[in-house]
Amino acid sequence: MHAYNLARPGQLNLAPILSAQSPTIDLHLPAYDASTRNFLQAISDFNSRAIAEINQRREAHATETTRLAERAQGMEKETNQCKIKEIELIGVLEREREETKEAESSVNALRRQVASQREAVAALDADIEQYRARVANLRKERERERKTLAMHAVPISAELRACERAWGCVIEGVGPDQLLIRYSLKGGESSRSTHEVSFVLDVSSSSSYKVLTSTPLLPTLPMLLDQLNESRDVFTFIKCVRQAYVKLFS
User: Fold this and answer.
1) Which of 234, 249, 139, 137 is nearest to 197 (CA)?
2) The pLDDT of residue 21 is above 90
3) Cβ contacts of residue 70 below 8 Å, gap of 6+?
4) Residue 2 pLDDT > 80, yes or no?
5) Nearest alpha-carbon partner for 171 in 159, 160, 158, 162
6) Where are the beta strands (DSSP E) in 157-229?
7) Distance between CA atoms of 119 and 109, rounded to whole angstroms?
8) Contact between residue 2 and residue 42 where contact means Cβ atoms under 8 Å apart
9) Does position 159 have pLDDT exceeding 70, yes or no?
10) Cα 39 to the chain's mean position, in Å?
């Protein structure tokens, strides 16, 4: 507020004023007017400053209110996002719990399977050991049988060679219960050429013998085979086949 000066009048003496011909009292109106104007101006300035201050504070308050409202909205938005993330995390945790339970269940099942497999492997190992022992025993028995057969084969081989010389053929084993009989025959008395003939006889069946192959073909072989199945005499069959081949080439 601007300062203003109000001139204080001196003490009024009424005696001289009343003794004058035209009594007047000096009211100092110009000074009063100036003082009044200064007072009113001071009030106007104060009012203007007060209004400006109020407007400034109102604007600052509005700005602060807007800022706080925006901040509150931002915080509310962040809070909502955090709630959404929290819900999502809760869902993830629930799924992880379920997956953990399933994984534990699978692990337990696998452990049971492994234990069962180990028991099965242990049983198989025991069976393998038993089989190994059996195989070892069978090998020993086979070795004994082989030695026994080798002992018996010496005279049999001699008898077989004698038979081959007598029958003019070679007999070989070519498969289980299959005999290959080979002949070397001359073409005739005046021919020096020889013919190699052979056939494979299957003796696996006790009821009927079979000729699997013959080289070359012998027309009378089916009839001779029928005679063999009736007589069951293999040695006679071999001799008859040789004689039939001799007649074929003569």
Assistant:
1) 249
2) no
3) none
4) no
5) 160
6) 169-175, 178-186, 194-202, 210-215
7) 15
8) yes
9) no
10) 97
Tokens 């074929």: give the residue. Answer: 248
**pLDDT at position 10:** 59
Q: Where are the alpha helices (DSSP H) in the chain?
A: 14-19, 29-167, 221-231, 234-249
Please give the pLDDT value at position 223. Answer: 93
Single-letter code of the amino acid located at 211: V
Per-residue pLDDT of 170-212, as tens digits, reads 888 877 888 888 888 766 555 567 788 899 998 888 778 888 8
Task: Report the predicted TM-score, pTM, of the whole model to 2 decimal places.
Answer: 0.37
Confidence of residue 9 (pLDDT cuts 50, 70, 90): low
Q: Which amino acid is at 83?
A: K
Give the 3-state secondary structure of 101-125. HHHHHHHHHHHHHHHHHHHHHHHHH
pLDDT tier for residue 161 given thresholds of 50, 70 and 90: low
Residue 89 to residues 80, 81, 125, 136, 242: CA-CA distances in angstroms?
14, 12, 51, 67, 98
Gap between the Cα atoms of 201 and 212, Å rounded: 6
Residue 3 has pLDDT above 50, yes or no: no
How far from each other are the two terminal CA atoms of the chain, in whole angstroms? Answer: 166
Distance from C-alpha of 178 to C-alpha of 76, rounded to nearest angstrom = 99
User: Are 242 and 182 within 8 A, CB to CB?
Assistant: no
Using CB atoms within 10 Å of the CB of residue 238, give its burial: 0 to 12 exposed, 13 to 18 middle, 19+ buried: buried
